[in-house]
């Protein structure tokens, strides 16, 4: 189960600090360990409801470029952003979650493709991909200082090792050893993407790394998608109504 561990955003609190679930609340969400719970952590997008913005109003050194769609990216190659993520990992893990779901790893490609480069920014996609390999490893190591068997699942980012290039093969191997699985979205419901599935088979399944697939589908399509995922060796999940709100019943706020 993947959850947003922040129950009140910084913008909605009196002191400007976000509020996360307590360990007691998380234990009820986990059903006393009956179901694993992963806390959501965004690697590269700057979310305005977090409490990591500076109080002096200056442009933070970890703020990176803005995408064509208006999303603000973090300068994930800088030590300042890594420090923020390490601190956030500790906060999330201390709620009692079983591990982390790392989202927007794929933005290394966006940052590496931009024409306008800051002086210390990765020069191209391979350089940005290599940074992402090390960033995920750093986060995994930090999470496991709190919980030695913390689960680390990366969303998408299937081609990060290939994008980093053959010179980064050792780094990719270390990266794969640090994660517990990869999840893909809409791998069967969208356009046919054989290259995606080839990379998953060769780079992950063959190395014993689980692949989880999430697809949104009408009930009539669900069985076919599940079968196709099973054939490829993935662990499938289908959201029948296109909404995450149906994944689980609400958790009572009191025992």
In short:
This protein is α/β, with parallel strands linked by helices. The chain has 8 helices and 11 strands. The chain has helices at residues 23-29, 79-93, 107-113, 125-146, 160-164, 169-178, 194-203, 219-232, and strands at 2-3, 6-8, 19-20, 38-42, 63-66, 72-74, 99-103, 151-155, 181-185, 211-216, 235-239.
Provide a descriptive summary of the structure in words.
There is one protein chain. The protein is an alpha/beta fold and 255 residues long. 35% of the residues lie in helices and 18% in strands. The protein contains eight helices and eleven strands. Strands 1-4-7-8-9-10-11 form a seven-stranded parallel β-sheet. Helix 7 links the parallel strand 9 and strand 10. Helix 3 packs antiparallel against helix 4 and helix 4 packs parallel to helix 6. The model has no long low-confidence stretch (mean pLDDT 92).
Radius of gyration: 19 Å
Mean pLDDT: 92
Main sheet: which strands, in order across? 1-4-7-8-9-10-11
Helix percent reads: 25-40%
Number of helices: 8
Report strand %. Answer: 15-25%
Key structural traits:
alpha/beta; 8 helices; 11 strands; 35% helix; globular
Chain-wise SSE layout:
Layout: E1 2-3, E2 6-8, E3 19-20, H1 23-29, E4 38-42, E5 63-66, E6 72-74, H2 79-93, E7 99-103, H3 107-113, H4 125-146, E8 151-155, H5 160-164, H6 169-178, E9 181-185, H7 194-203, E10 211-216, H8 219-232, E11 235-239
Parallel strand pairs: 1-4, 4-7, 7-8, 8-9, 9-10, 10-11
Antiparallel strand pairs: 2-3, 5-6
Helix pairs in contact: 2-4, 3-4, 4-6
């Amino acid at each position: 189960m993947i959850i947003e561990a922040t129950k009140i955003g910084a913008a909605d609190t009196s002191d400007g600090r976000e509020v996360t679930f307590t360990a007691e609340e998380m234990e009820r969400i986990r059903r006393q360990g009956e179901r694993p719970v992963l806390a959501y952590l965004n690697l590269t997008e700057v979310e305005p409801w977090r409490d990591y913005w500076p109080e002096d109003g200056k442009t933070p050194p970890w703020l990176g470029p803005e995408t064509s769609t208006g999303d603000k990216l973090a300068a994930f190659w800088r030590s300042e952003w890594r420090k923020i993520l390490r601190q956030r990992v500790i906060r999330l893990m201390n709620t009692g979650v079983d591990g982390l779901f790392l989202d927007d790893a794929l933005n290394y490609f966006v940052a590496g493709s931009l024409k306008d480069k800051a002086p210390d920014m990765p020069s191209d996609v391979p350089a940005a991909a290599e940074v992402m390999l090390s960033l995920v490893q750093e986060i995994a190591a930090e999470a496991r200082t709190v919980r030695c068997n913390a689960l680390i699942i990366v969303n998408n980012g299937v081609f990060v090792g290939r994008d980093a290039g053959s010179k980064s093969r050792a780094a990719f191997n270390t990266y794969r050893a640090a994660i517990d699985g990869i999840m893909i979205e809409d791998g069967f419901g969208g356009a046919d993407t054989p290259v995606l599935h080839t990379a998953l088979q060769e780079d992950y399944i063959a190395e014993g790394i689980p692949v989880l697939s999430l697809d949104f589908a009408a009930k009539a399509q669900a069985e076919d998608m599940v079968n196709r995922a099973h054939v490829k060796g993935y662990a499938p999940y289908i959201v029948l109504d296109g909404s995450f709100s149906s994944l689980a019943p609400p958790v009572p706020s009191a025992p």
